[in-house]
Structure formats: C-alpha cells, structure tokens
Amino acid sequence: MATEASARGETRIPLSRDRVLRAAIDLADAGGIESLTMRRLAQELGVEAMTLYYHVANKDDILNGIVDLVVGEIALPSADDDWRTAIRTAAMSAHQVLLRHPWAAGLVLSGAGVSPARLRYMNALLGSLREAGFSAEMTDHAYHALDSHIMGFTLWVVGMDLGSDEDLAALATNFLAELPRDELPHLAEHVEQHLKPRDPSDEGEFAFGLDLVLDGLERLRGG
Q1: What is the pLDDT of residues 25-43, one digit of tens each?
Q2: Which alpha helices (H) appear in the chain, and where do they start and end?
Q3: Fewest beta carbons less than 10 Å away: which of 25, 61, 179, 196?
Q4: Are residues 100 and 192 in the same domain?
Q5: Which residue in 127, 205, 133 sits closest to 168, CA to CA?
Q6: In percent, how much of the chain has pLDDT > 90?
Q7: Are residues 34 and 115 in the same domain?
Q8: Which residue range forms the structural domain that includes residue 63?
Q9: What mean pLDDT is predicted for residues 194-208?
Q10: Confidence category of residue 2, pLDDT binned at 50, 70, 90
Q11: Closest to 136 (Cα-Cα) out of 124, 125, 147, 126
Q12: Are 15 and 55 a contacting pair, CB within 8 Å?
C-alpha cells in the first residue's frame, strides 16, 4: 500500500550533516550571515530545531562547516601549469567563489576560517611559490601580498554592494549630474569610465591588480 508521501509523489531526503550545511549556505547567500539561525535553518529543512543537533554541534560548528565547504570550491594551483598561471587561476577562482558567497570572506578571516579546506589552499599556494624558486622568506612576503589582494579586494567589493550593473550606471549618472566638473575634472573622468562598455578582453580591476602583484613577483624571482 502506497504511503501518503509516495502517493503525492514526494520523496523525503534523509537529513545529514552535508544537507544541513548546504541549506545553511543557501540561507546565508540569500539573506546574509545574520539570517542564518538554528530556528530558520530548521524551518528551511522542515524539521524541529533540536533535530539539527544530531548532525551539528552548535552554531559555531555550522559556521566552521560552511566556510570549509565554500573554500573547498576554490580551484587549487595546478602542478601542470607554470607557477604564474597556476597561482593566477587559483587567485581568480578564490575571488569569484567569495563573490558568489558574499558573507564568506569575513568568516574566512575569522576563527571559522581555520578549516581543512583553507589549510589545503594555503599549503598549495605556498607550495607553488616554493617550487617556483622563491626562498622561504620571499614566499612568506609573496603569499601575504597575494592573500591581501584577494581578501582585501573581495571585502571592498562586497562592502560596496552597489547592486547590478544597471544600478551602478544609474548611480554614476546621478553622481555626475551633481559633480562640479570644473573643480574635480579627474574624478568626473574616472566616474565616466564606469559608464563606458567594457572591452571584452578586460578582466576587470581584480585581475589588473593581481597581474601587478604577479609581475612584481616575477621580477623578484628573476633577480
């Protein structure tokens, strides 16, 4: 005899730690990390809040878990590529992943960021630099220069939160209308750049800054 659930064509997915964490990521992506509460998470999963504790210890355990999953999405440097390509690809991936999950960059820099995936990422990046011929001391400086650009630029973009390209264009247009061009001509010119169509070959400001860092490291490596 068919159950009521099967009669409705529904299949109940068993609750698991992975399902809890991925639902938590969805909540944080949709409403920010402040929207992630045990009660709300339980509602999204269709269970009682106490049921979650069979799979996660507490809220901190959830935060640690979702950071680990997000950092795990970042592409690690490939041993098949030259050092610059490998590190550039990993850095671009890190920036894109953290933009997909705007709440994550802050957590990565907190205690929750010390996760297995984060440690693997750090080790891979450091290893790429060492194998490229950088000394231990120079690798230390290079890693922090790269990480500062990745995390700092990402946090800046997330913090700005200017909306869609259309929102940004409207904001720039309104700003220009009020700007005294005679007094601030260079600022006006800068704002106008945001209204121009981007060259398809232009990867954007993050890639521009990353290439400057990599150019500098290449010069040091060759020196």
Answers
A1: 999 999 999 999 999 999 9
A2: 4-7, 17-31, 38-45, 59-71, 83-100, 104-108, 116-131, 136-160, 165-178, 185-193, 205-222
A3: 196
A4: yes
A5: 205
A6: 78
A7: no
A8: 11-70
A9: 88
A10: very low
A11: 126
A12: yes
